[in-house]
Amino acid sequence: MAEKKETNFKVVADNRRARFDYEIGETFEAGMILTGTEVKSLRTGKATIGESYASLDKAGELYLVNATIPEYLQANRFNHAPKRQRKLLLNSREIIRVAKGLEREGMTLVPLKIYFNARGRAKIELALGRGKKLHDKRETEKQRDWNREKSRLLRERN
């Protein structure tokens, strides 16, 4: 197997199900506008983005919807709402590309992972994805099983 590159960032939340449910197209890295307690809660690594998505409002701004960042326990009354909408930061050219992608039929802006980059900033990786049909999901699973079986046979042979 090839060696994995060493990364300079810490992954906080990963949406592994997205690659199974969607055909992933173009990916984008966006910043997030967070409160202090949200950042502290993210550093504990308990966020979930499994059922979340990003949407474009009428003013041309991007928002992360339905992502759960749990309350920070030590923050008592200054806490945040766990499922609030969070504004995402992209360049205007990237927002235009996202808007054109969302206009196409069946395309969704899916969050893939939330992480802290090398500078300690919270970032989110978004992808334009098209929802897979049931037969496409079955085909993906067959391909994955075959690759696993093929690698097992090659190991036994050597």
UniProtKB/TrEMBL annotation:
CDD domains (UniProt xref): SmpB
UniProt-listed SUPFAM superfamilies? Small protein B (SmpB) (SSF74982)
Q: Give compartment(s).
A: Cytoplasm
> Where does this protein chiefly localize?
cytoplasm
Q: Which UniProt keywords apply?
A: Cytoplasm, RNA-binding
Q: Where does the record place the region Disordered?
A: 136-158
Function as written in the Swiss-Prot or TrEMBL entry: Required for rescue of stalled ribosomes mediated by trans-translation. Binds to transfer-messenger RNA (tmRNA), required for stable association of tmRNA with ribosomes. tmRNA and SmpB together mimic tRNA shape, replacing the anticodon stem-loop with SmpB. tmRNA is encoded by the ssrA gene; the 2 termini fold to resemble tRNA(Ala) and it encodes a 'tag peptide', a short internal open reading frame. During trans-translation Ala-aminoacylated tmRNA acts like a tRNA, entering the A-site of stalled ribosomes, displacing the stalled mRNA.
UniProt lists the family membership as follows: Belongs to the SmpB family.
What is the recorded name of this protein? SsrA-binding protein
Its source organism is Methylovirgula ligni
